[in-house]
Design a protein that fits this description.
- The protein has about 350 residues and is mostly beta strands.
- It has two domains: about 55-105 and about 245-340, Jelly Rolls; about 120-240, Jelly Rolls, CATH 2.60.120.
- It has one helix at about 20-65, and strands spanning about 5, 10, 75-80, 85-90, 95, 100-105, 120-125, 130-135, 140-150, 160-165, 170-175, 180, 185-195, 200-210, 215-225, 230, 235-240, 245-250, 255-270, 270-280, 285, 290-295, 300-325, 335-340.
- Strand 22 and strand 23 form a beta hairpin.
Length: about 350
């Protein structure tokens, strides 16, 4: 008579036992059921690990958004767009909205700004001195000329003025020419320039008096309601840089050896998202879309969460993310944050 195995009760026959078809069929059913239970446990374990990984990402992101420094961790990348410290470069019409700490698409671009009406308020630029005006871009584009309203008063000497554009202490562009401010009355002076600008970024416009000795002059402001002074009377000629697509590229991070990655992107709005991973230079590998589900932002607002996965053919130890946004019918997606979890 046959005995049975310890765990799932498969038949163990002696050499003299008869073989019955029913015994074989029963053993096959037991094996199939056992394999099903093991696969189910494996799936649940993997799901639990991925959920745990996302919870870790979520907690780190929350700490980051509360102002607690965490930095890059082994096996994890994330960004809540509080600043651009994790961004290596921008492509196309993608931009970061500083007010809402989100990333989206500028579909319209920076418009030209006509020369305004001017009043009598004055700002003087003495010899070797500058008049500085801050200006925030309303869209992406390229500034090709800036005009300012000025004069050289009758008690001064004619003087030359140059123009440059700065951001965060770095000069981005200059006019490459001087304008001579003369004593023939108030008028507009135009400075040619070639300077790309990015929506939401603030720039410094500097008008520099190159003269020496007693030469000086005035750059005029607009006069607002009630006599209040408003910024310099500026006219801006720009080529709009709006479009239907754009991307951000993150700074490369040292992750440790990895081959498999899962990316979560929390977003709203219309359009499409795509994610790629690479080393920060050279080729990129596209991540496969894993669908989307309802989620919430760090502050609890409803949003969607899109998942992307990648099984890389080679083992790497660094990673950078290229996140591409595409608008649809003039409506752009809005991205709140992303997290990339490296599981192998």
């Amino acid at each position: 008579m046959s005995t049975q195995t310890q765990h799932i009760g498969l038949h163990q026959w002696e050499s003299t036992d008869p073989f019955l078809r029913e015994d074989f069929n029963q053993d096959h059913r037991l094996i199939d059921a056992a394999v099903g239970r093991i696969e189910g446990k494996a799936d649940r374990a993997l799901s639990g690990l991925e959920g745990m990984s996302y919870n870790v990402y979520n907690l780190l992101l929350q700490n980051y958004c509360e102002g607690k420094y965490t930095g890059f961790k082994r096996g994890l990348m994330f960004d809540g767009f509080l600043d651009e410290s994790c961004v290596s470069s921008w492509e196309g019409s993608a931009y970061r909205d500083a007010a809402s700490s989100t990333v989206s698409i500028d579909t319209e671009g920076q418009p030209s700004i006509p020369r305004p009406e001017t009043g009598a308020a004055l700002m003087s630029a003495g010899p070797k001195q500058s008049v500085v005006q801050e200006w925030t871009a309303q869209g992406n584009g390229v500034i090709t000329a800036v005009s300012v309203y000025g004069e050289c008063p009758s008690y001064g000497l004619a003087h030359k003025v140059t123009f440059s554009i700065w951001r965060n202490g770095e000069k981005l562009a200059d006019s490459g020419k001087e304008n001579l401010f003369t004593q023939d009355g108030k008028k507009w002076y135009e400075f040619p320039v070639n300077c790309p600008v990015h929506k939401g970024c603030t720039y410094e416009f500097r008008f520099y008096n190159t003269g020496s000795g007693g030469s000086f002059g005035d750059i005029l402001c607009c006069r607002g309601a009630g006599g209040a002074e408003s910024p310099l009377a500026l006219g801006i000629t720009a080529t709009p840089g709006g479009g239907s697509s754009g991307a951000l590229v993150t700074l490369p991070a040292q992750i440790g050896q990895w081959r498999r990655a899962v990316c979560y992107i929390r977003c709203n709005g219309d359009g499409q998202l795509a994610a790629q991973l690479g080393s920060g230079s050279g080729s990129w590998e596209s991540m496969a879309s894993g669908g989307s589900a309802s989620s919430g932002t760090v502050d609890g607002s409803p949003c969607m969460e899109c998942a992307f996965t990648l099984e890389s053919a080679e083992v790497r130890d660094a990673a950078a993310l290229r996140l591409t946004l595409t608008a649809r019918d003039g409506k752009a997606p809005v991205v709140y944050d992303y997290g990339v979890i490296f599981t192998e």
